[in-house]
Design brief:
By secondary structure, the chain is mainly beta. It has four helices and 34 strands.
Length: 442
């Protein structure tokens, strides 16, 4: 049978594939070099398995929740920006449980996340250790294993999308969920977060009432975003094209009865501007991206429309924190960069993914870097700072020079998020598990 090995190719994060037949294995033992060829993602044949080239990762951990999670968010925790290892990350996710099983909001503490040990370090340790040291090493390995602690809140129906309010306080941490039942809930997960810091974590799914529930949407939806500039302001968009604005009051929220309804089909994603407090963007199955101003009358609030932004559904958008750019991803598998100063045409277009784009997000501190995930089971990392227009040609295939890294190993990747305080750390959710990783490229 075949054995598959991967190696990192020069400055890119694309992996290399080394195929060794039984004859080649024999020549490898005699010291002769085997033929290397660059690896690009393709369909895996029966009996073949992808294994990551760990020299391309500074860190890679896998966690499995009780059920699949369509959506998650990373908590801007109080551990502040940090370097060094091990690290700890807090996330909140919403489940898509099997039929007949309960759904929940899962609050997760991922701790003891250590750096990958490089092969040369392992070889050196192997040479130096004795039998007693073997036992000590096993004990150390056990201590260095990643740890997942969870607290769960019962949720009625699948969680289509979940987002954490960025203006959380020590007293309250608000989280919003879009339910497949057509309702939007707001939860205070402060008590569950506190429980993760004590030894007496309750493993049972807790029944907790939402702080607030809005049932005014006609149908379920996916679009949802908390304002980064105005405390407690929220936008939610549904599959019948309607967007509601939530205004915080002393004890609850006032949800606008009039809606922003210029889209013709389902609203797939919503993003507040990171610096203009009344401005937001949305994208839709109607192939458009729209820019809005919530101060205008609802029927006039759509200020700019980008028609035919993609050739089919526009699934996801993300607004750059420091530059006037929006990245979008569509059912067409294409990633586009839009310059808000000139929206008559895209500023850049990247064709790499072979399936619909499921998530996009700019790096929190490096304004030229973003990540994307697709239904082709790939996470791609990109750097707009690479100005070359000439594609790289690998195995007769053209690869955009801005493509930094390709991460694989998960099925049906739904969302990705950068950690706001741990530089270069990415988290992804998929059908079976979460990946937490940091590459040597970013």
């Amino acid at each position: 049978g075949k054995q598959w090995y991967q190696r990192r190719v020069r400055g890119m994060g694309v992996n290399e594939e080394e195929e060794m037949t039984e004859e080649q294995t024999g020549t490898a033992e005699t010291g002769e070099k085997t033929q290397l060829k660059t690896y690009l993602p393709k369909d895996i044949e029966a009996g073949e398995e992808l294994t990551p080239d760990m020299s391309a990762y500074e860190m890679l951990h896998t966690f499995r929740a009780r059920a699949s999670c369509l959506s998650f968010d990373v908590l801007k925790d109080r551990l502040v920006p940090r370097e060094g290892y091990p690290v700890t990350a807090y996330t909140v996710a919403g489940t898509q449980a099997d039929k007949g099983k309960k759904n929940s909001v899962i609050i997760m503490k991922m701790s003891n996340l250590n750096r990958e040990q490089k092969e040369e370090e392992e070889d050196k340790e192997e040479e130096e250790k004795s039998d007693d040291e073997d036992i000590e090493k096993d004990e150390e390995d056990e201590k260095s294993k990643e740890v997942l602690e969870t607290a769960e809140i019962y949720h009625q129906g699948t969680v289509n999308r979940i987002r954490i309010c960025p203006h959380s306080t020590d007293a309250k941490t608000y989280v919003s969920t879009w339910s497949e039942k057509g309702k939007v809930h707001i939860w205070d997960i402060g008590p569950q977060l506190s429980s993760l810091e004590t030894a007496s974590t309750n493993k049972e799914v807790q029944k907790v009432k939402p702080v607030f529930t809005f049932g005014g949407h006609v149908e379920e939806g996916f679009g949802m975003d908390w304002s980064p500039t105005r405390q407690g302001y929220l936008l939610t968009g549904d599959c019948t094209r309607h967007i509601h604005l939530w205004t915080p009051r002393e004890a609850d929220w006032l949800v606008s009865q009039q809606t922003f309804s210029s889209h013709h089909e389902s609203v797939e994603d919503i993003q507040w501007s990171p610096n203009e407090e009344h401005v937001f963007a949305s994208c839709s199955v109607d192939k458009t991206i729209r820019i809005w101003d919530d101060r205008a009358p609802h029927h006039k609030a759509c200020m700019i429309t980008v028609p035919e932004a993609h050739s089919s559904d526009v699934n996801v958008i993300n607004w750059n924190r420091t530059e006037p750019f929006i990245v979008s991803g569509g059912d067409d598998g294409i990633l586009k960069i839009w310059d808000l100063r000139k929206l008559d045409s895209h500023a850049a277009l990247f064709k790499h993914h072979s399936g619909p784009i499921t998530s996009v997000e700019w790096h929190p501190t490096d304004s030229s870097v973003f990540g994307a995930s697709g239904e082709d089971n790939q996470v791609s990392l990109w750097d707009l700072g690479v100005e070359s227009a000439e594609p790289l040609v690998i195995n007769d295939t053209e690869v955009p020079p801005q493509l930094l890294f390709i991460h694989q190993g998960q099925e049906e990747i739904k969302e990705l998020h950068w950690h706001p305080f741990i530089s270069g750390l990415l988290l992804t959710t998929s059908l079976n598990d979460f990946n937490v990783f940091k590459t040597i490229s970013v």
